Amino acid sequence: MDISIIIVNYNVKDYLADCIKSIRKATQHLSIEIFVVDNNSTDGSKEFLTPLFPNVKFIWLEENIGFSKANNIAIKQSAGKYVLILNPDTIIPKDTLLQMFHYMENEPDVGISGCKVLNSDGSFQMSCRRGEHTIWNTFCMLLGLQKLFPKSKLFSSYNLTYLSENQTSEVDAISGCFMFCDGDLIRNICGFDERYFMYCEDNDLCKMVQLQGRKIMYFHHCYIIHHKGESTKRSNIIKSKQMYKSVELFVIKFYSGSKFFLFLLRLGIFFVRSLARVKNIK
Predict the structure, then answer these.
(1) Which of 6, 26, 86, 165 would bridge 92 by S-S if both were Cys, CB 3.0 to 4.6 A apart?
(2) Residues near 87 by Cβ (< 8 Å), separated by ≥ 6?
(3) CATH number of the domain within which 220 lies
(4) What is the pLDDT of residue 276?
């Protein structure tokens, strides 16, 4: 088996159907298996998708257990040389999977790679490649300094906006919407840390892979389209609260010795939340 493709679905059956159709067109000369782990969708996903895709391995859960746990269920069952973690609201162009497969075959020191990710309008999705959650990068992210100074390496080293999108680069993390992983490596480290319900689990997995001595690479020669945030738009989870909780978990896990880091992080979270409350009141 060349690639095990794992998709976690939550109430986006139409996007998922289009995603699977695009995968079918993009898997020429590759042997694949597709897992869909459904987090107890209420939009009729099971009745709609099952008859359309009889060869897909569906796993229907009775509750929403989050992104990390849902992916791990399929990772344990996967048999592919490579494991592709893929969002349901994505479209895979014809040559992308084959190019990613050949890239990983020729780069044995790479543990996880990601391709160029485009928004629905064709613009570049800057969150598809990232720097590390250092003290400074996290503070610049929370306070919006990276948005104010996107070409500055000093202020934008988290989203790496100072780098060209048309440049293959070693990075610290790539987006969980498309993670092309060494299958044995990901299975050996038991997949995602299940303490993350949503957000930052991709950063965490990339960090764990780096600790194994393997590289994280952004490969610019192919792309996917990502209709960003469709699953979370329809979720009853408060997005910002969950995101900040996940960032704090990441910091505690990898920088637990830095009380100053945690202080700055919590200060930044308090500041951003306060601004959001003022905005909502207005």
Answers:
(1) 26
(2) 7, 8, 19, 176, 177, 178, 226, 231
(3) 3.90.550.10
(4) 64
- The secondary structure of 164-199 as a DSSP string is -TTS-EEESEE-TTEEEEEHHHHHHTTSS-TT-SSS
Q: Are strands 215-226 and 110-118 parallel, antiparallel or unpaired?
A: parallel
Report residue 32 as tokens. Answer: 């694949």
Global pTM reads 0.85
**Would you state the structure tokens that stand for residue 163, as one six-digit string?**
């780098």
CA-CA distance, 95 to 7, in Å (whole number)? 19
Residue found under tokens 């309008």? 121
Strands (E), the chain: 3-9, 32-38, 57-60, 82-86, 90-91, 110-118, 129-130, 169-171, 173-174, 178-182, 215-226
Closest CA to 38 of 4, 80, 8, 77: 8
Number of domains in the chain: 1
Residue 228 lies in domain: 3-281
The contacts of residue 83 (CB under 8 Å, 6+ apart) are 3, 4, 6, 75, 181, 182, 183, 186, 187
- Contact between 271 and 282 under an 8 Å Cβ cutoff? The reply is no
Structure tokens at 276: 């959001």
Long-range residue pairs from 121-125, CB within 8 A, at least 24 positions apart, any chain? 124/165, 125/175, 125/226, 125/228
Nearest to 221 by CA among 119, 122, 115, 123: 115
Beta bridge partners of 217: 113, 170
pLDDT in tens, 156-180: 777 888 888 999 999 999 999 999 9
User: In this predicted model, what pLDDT tens digit does every residue of 128-150 receive, in sequence order?
Assistant: 998 877 767 777 776 777 777 77
User: What tokens does 218 get?
Assistant: 């952004």
